[in-house]
Amino acid sequence: MAGEDRARDGKPRPRAGNTVRLELALIGHLFTIAIKEWGLGLAVNPVLNIRRPSPGAGRNRRLAEAEERRLMALVDDYSIPMMRWIVRTAIETSMRSSEITGLRKGQVELGKRVVRLLETKNTVPRTVPLSKAATELFREALAYFECFGVSIQRVLTDNGKSFHSALFASSCLELGISQKFTRAYRPQTNGKAERFIQSALREWAYGQPYSSSDQRREQLPAWNHFYNWHRPHHGINLKPPVSRLLVPRKNLLTLHS
Prior knowledge:
The protein is mainly alpha-helical. It has helices spanning 17-37, 65-76, 81-93, 97-101, 132-146, 166-175, 191-205, 213-218, 220-229, 249-256; strands spanning 4-6, 12-14, 108-109, 114-117, 126-129, 154-157, 178-181. The protein contains ten helices and seven strands.
């Protein structure tokens, strides 16, 4: 178990101590369930007698000033404007990439300078305070999307727990958006969302081989950009969804550069 893993370049590398600890915890839990609930004929969980590697040191390094300048120079030249906000927001708030890319407008409270995260790695909602720099980043991002002329009147969701939460309801009320829920056992009312999920599974999730789930997740923002800006859609005469926005093509090209 404490052997070697293969890196993306195919070269072997020692398995991290924390990886071994997590795998032992999983196996130990399996034995506990098997002994207590399945009647496995063991008196003691054998994993308890295995010596675990010590936990590694926590992450305490921040980008050096020169490193940050080089990174930002590359990010600012990237063709997708969102990349700039994602990277800068990560630096300013220490939020995870999945937390940033999953943000919705209703979760950002610029007046209070906080972001309300509904879904986190440990499944517990949390509030992230925003520095002055982070607040300005969010103001810039919101202004960018407002220039598209998109007006949201209604939001249709399934009946998931998060959509019935008081926070989601109050965010919709604050933004003047009416809530609509799909009827149980009627997938027709959520057809567009299901079609999007099918496309995502076929073209992104399983469209090419990935070496890990992390690598697959890293490719989602790029595919999502391709889907909205470049991918032809049969339902709108082989044009991308962004072409439906009430913005002149010249402005769209400027925004996309």
